[in-house]
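Support request, please re-run this one:
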Amino acid sequence: MADEFQRLQTSYGLSKEIVNPTNAVRRLEQQLSGGLASRVKAVEWYTEKWYKKSTSESYYVTFILARVPKAEIDRAYDEVVNKTIEELKGERDKAVEQKAKAQFDNAIKAFEDAKVGGFKLAK
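Re-run finished. Output below.
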């Protein structure tokens, strides 16, 4: 995914102050994983009860096969990209220099294009 951000940065002439690929990838991965965690659906599961004789303690171990529907992945991705676009617009509006505003406009365009074309998510 870092390569995709590097490509966006190069293609749209973005400065590292506007969109830093390392920070952007880390943030996108954190937001996506957080968004997807709430959308996980358990498909199968089973529980085992264990007993430890030395301490006379019982405990349970549960195994779960979970899936995240593709529609939920797409929705989480859209939410992250839309939030990023809104944040960039806010930063652009705060920018004083015309050059900085142009950089933010380029960053917004890059994320809007990525929203349509998607990022190649690492498997």
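The two ends are 10 Å apart (CA to CA). The chain has one domain: 2-39+69-117.
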